[in-house]
Amino acid sequence: MVIYCAGPIRGDTAFRKYHIEIINYVESEGHTALSEIDGQFTSHVKLNDNQIFKRDIKWIESSNIMIAEISGPSLGVGFEISYALFVKKIPVLALFNNEIENISAMITGCNSILLTIANYKNTEELKQIISTFILKVSGSE
Question: What is d(CA 134, CA 100) in angstroms, rounded to the nearest whole number?
């Protein structure tokens, strides 16, 4: 399965380690993770803003699902979630750390059946939520 793994790049990156954990876990389970960063946070070739936009839209278009780390506010991640839900119409798992008290009302108030929102307290719980989500959307549950 091809999975777009969204997370803040220029926004609040305080929870970046979990974004990287998502990417690493998706790949360890045999899926293709599309993300601006790899599991070691090695930036790819420097692109201008228009190139980044086109690349990320292309990645979302080629993905079966999206998993987004939303603990830190990011306009880009919000845009990508909206695009995935309402243009591409693919399932999205939005994950946030349980230390976070307020998630955007634009996410929590969204009633799309394609959106799943979950909070996690540690890496093991994060992996379990992802595994359950992938099984559910792939029809293997």
Answer: 24
User: Amino acid identity, residue 121?
Assistant: K
Write out the two tokens for 101: 């008290």
The pTM for the full model equals 0.92
User: From residue 40, how far is each of 18, 22, 44 by CA, in Å?
Assistant: 12, 12, 11
Q: Which CATH code of 3.65.10.10, 3.40.50.450, 3.40.718.10, 1.10.3720.10 fits the domain covering 2-138?
A: 3.40.50.450
Neighbours of 101 (CB within 10 A): 6
Q: Which pLDDT tens digit goes with each residue over 79-135? A: 999 999 999 999 999 999 999 989 999 999 999 999 999 999 999 999 999 999 999
The structure tokens listed for 61 are 């278009």
The helix (H) or strand (E) run that includes residue 65 is strand 65-69
Element (H or E) spanning 4, and its range? Answer: strand 2-6
